[in-house]
Amino acid sequence: MMLITFIFFIVGGKLVYLQIVKGKSLQAKALDQWTRDVPLGAVRGQICDCNGVELAGCNTTYTLYVRPNATENKQKTAEAIAQTLSLDYEKVLEKVSKKGVSEVTVAKKVSKEQMLCLIASGEKGMYFSRDVERYYKYGNYLSQLLGFVNADGDGQAGLESYYNDYLKGQDGKELTQTDLVGRELNGEISYLPATDGLNLRLTIDASIQFFAENAVNSALSEYSAKSANCVVMNAKTGAIAAIAQAPSFDLNNVDRSNVDALFEKMKLNALTSVYEPGSTFKILTTAIALSLGVVSEKDRFYCAGGKVVDGKRIRCWKSVGHGSQTFAEGVQNSCNCVFMELAERIGVERMYSYFVKFGLTRKTGIDYLGETSSILLKKDQVKLVDAARIGFGQAIAITPMQLIVATAAAVNGGKIVTPYLMQSVLDSRGREVIRNYPTEGERVITESTSATVRKLLKNVVSLGSGKLAGVAGYSIGGKTGTAQKYQNGAIASGKYVSSFIGFSTVEDPEYIVYFMVDEPLGYRYYGSLVAAPYVGQIFSKIFEYKQIKPTEEIKTFTYREMPDLCGLTAGNAIKTVNSLGLHFELDGTGGSVIAQYPQKGEIINDNTIVLIALSEE
């Protein structure tokens, strides 16, 4: 009796262990043995622009499986498949007749029409799984921003990665009960339906994006540059209307043979690379100096072509000097000496406190992976000569997006914005699940100071180096930048970053446009000649697209032939250009002119900017 009782407890305990402890795992194994499943891929969510224009979507195709043991008439089944899909009958029959397998893949990328035709044939043993393939409507537009997915449909880079959890959805299954050799038991099919991904609506405007894409591609070609980059942002809200970069690549044909090279291509320069901003940074020095009250528009400065700071002579870009000028004229002339003096008046402590306010010591917070931050000297290590250089945009490296955000605060009335790319997340019925609202930022400068900054920057476009960014009838403000590049701690000969940042309208800025060309080849490397014209083109197209009417009187230009400057002394060449009322750029420090742009005899007008190349003697 004791033995029977002992056996009873052992068997009972085993049953309890199998049913309770191991029950769920054994049920799963049993279900796996009793059923055959066919995956049902979820459709990845669409990415579209702010107006609903599709940027990334999905093509749905089907994979055809055949279960040989469930196929009643193998010849008829093979014939139906071969005819419908234009395949070789003998090869299909070989697959349909294969022994020792529960199922075999016959064809991929079967269209919906072909699938329905095969189902209508009534032949048994054919099954279909849904496959989802990502495609990008405009190929090589927005490549770095959108990113791409892997073979499993998961985001690997760009916004595809950042918003993957919203976009990817959840795959489903089709389950069929079968016996040990794969024959269907009762013909019943169970479905675990796929849950499609949510749709992403961006702040990007496809039309403005096209303007920017065409501009960067043109600049890359015209100047044989390393890269060209453009960002268009709403200066009041931080919404990004366009972000373009060249060179680019086709997202529908991604070369994955070299992963390191691929992810190097994927770097979005506006967010992941830092540069010396050059003279575009003078916008911030201007705003800080005005805010602190250390300068007024009518203060006078003198430029002799350079300034000695801590025993070191730092040159102005105009080697012959600007002479006596007001602060307003100094901004218009982009005089380095003026901004060195401002940096001294501001002081390192106050300068760095404003860098914090303008967001230069942190990332902007844009919704994108891989954003980097600035490179600044430690405050306690900044010498007077360093501060002087920082004042006009040297000895500091920031991302283009940091510069754009800070400039927006300087001209939008004084408030910092957080740039953003996602406008909303929508379900399959178009209902908003998530809405992204602009962040109310901290006030950095007063509205009156911001108005003064705008006025000074308008003069840069209407009278100074930014003329080529102007659009007749519209008020535009901005600043050019031409920064030398460094290599191994020393200035890299002949390598520059040419840029322009502009906004419109001056009275009530909405759009801010940043354009940068990295390492343009040739002697026309100045931001006024390389980048500013493209900003003007983009603004012109935006005004037309948005049907923004002119706000100013359209000026009439006087046309004339360009005189011959070659062989003249620097002083005489400058006098000649000044007598024509034209803005000019100087290249070199010598005493005589060896080249010019435009060339002698070319037709010029009042808006022409002249480049005077001097000898190095």
* Radius of gyration over C-alpha positions, nearest whole angstrom: 33 Å
Helix/strand/pairing category: alpha+beta
Please tally the helical runs, counting DSSP H or I stretches of 4 or more residues.
Answer: 21
> What is the 3D shape?
elongated
User: What proportion strand?
Assistant: 15-25%
Number of strands: 24
| Cα end-to-end separation | 118 Å
Would you give an account of this structure?
- With about 625 residues, the protein is an alpha+beta fold.
- The chain is about 35% helix and about 25% strand.
- It has 21 helices and 24 strands.
- Strands 2, 3, 4, 5, 8, 15 and 16 form a seven-stranded mixed β-sheet that branches. The protein has a five-stranded antiparallel β-sheet with strand order 10-9-19-18-17, sandwiched between helices. Strands 1-6-7 form a three-stranded antiparallel β-sheet.
- α3 crosses α4, α9 runs antiparallel to α20 and α12 crosses α14.
- The longest helix is centred in the first third of the chain and has 20 residues.
- The protein is elongated.
- The relative contact order is 0.10.
- About 0% of the residues have low confidence.
Task: Give the topology, please.
Elements (H helix, E strand, L loop, with lengths): L1 H20 L1 H12 E6 L6 E2 L5 E13 L7 H12 L3 H8 L7 E7 L1 H9 L5 E11 L6 H4 L11 H5 L1 H4 L4 E7 L5 E9 L6 E4 L3 H18 L3 E8 L5 E7 L12 H7 L3 H4 L9 H11 L7 E4 L2 E4 L2 E4 L7 E4 H7 L2 H11 L1 H10 L26 H8 L8 H12 L10 E5 L5 E4 L11 H16 L13 E12 L2 E15 L6 E8 L8 H4 L1 H14 L14 E2 L8 H10 L3 E5 L5 E5 L5 E2 L4 E6 L3
Parallel strand pairs: 2-8, 21-24
Antiparallel strand pairs: 1-6, 2-3, 3-4, 3-5, 6-7, 8-15, 9-10, 9-19, 11-14, 12-13, 15-16, 17-18, 18-19, 20-23, 22-24
Helix pairs in contact: 3-4, 9-20, 12-14, 12-18, 13-18, 14-16
